[in-house]
User: Fold this.
Amino acid sequence: MLEECKCVVRNNQSRWACAAMATRKKGPVDDYRITPDYRPTNAQTIPIAGVMPNLLVVMVKVKGARFFAKFDLFKGFWQLMLHEESRELFSFMTNDTVYTPLRVPQGATDSPIHFQNQMQEVFRDMLYENLLVWVDDIVLFAKTCEEFVSVL
Assistant:
């Protein structure tokens, strides 16, 4: 599936390959995700700077809001391309091949803050006015129905 959606490519020539295992997803259906162990890669990573939302600021901003909508972005990290020079470093192996991700992988040190930074940039005009972002979750809020409809 990851190959079909162009999230990974086979790369048995990779100089890097972290071990991966199947991890059961939460929910009523037996579904699994590939979970690479990126500890060796993360140990070589210098974390990027970024700011996660402050809960006190969030509480002040949503005070008085009566209308809310929440969106959970589908496979959030996979929506962002991984820089070409970084791809091989995040390769992972399964029982029969090595894959190199083309998209930002889950489990990498910088993935959450990189995604947060990108989302804050995309929504900078609405951020904290009528919209909050926490990685791949977006919350819209408004005090009136009319305001809510206009921000949708």
Observations:
- The beta strands are 8-10, 18-24, 32-36, 67-72, 92-93, 98-101, 131-134, 137-142.
- The longest strand covers residues 18-24.
- The two ends are 32 Å apart (CA to CA).
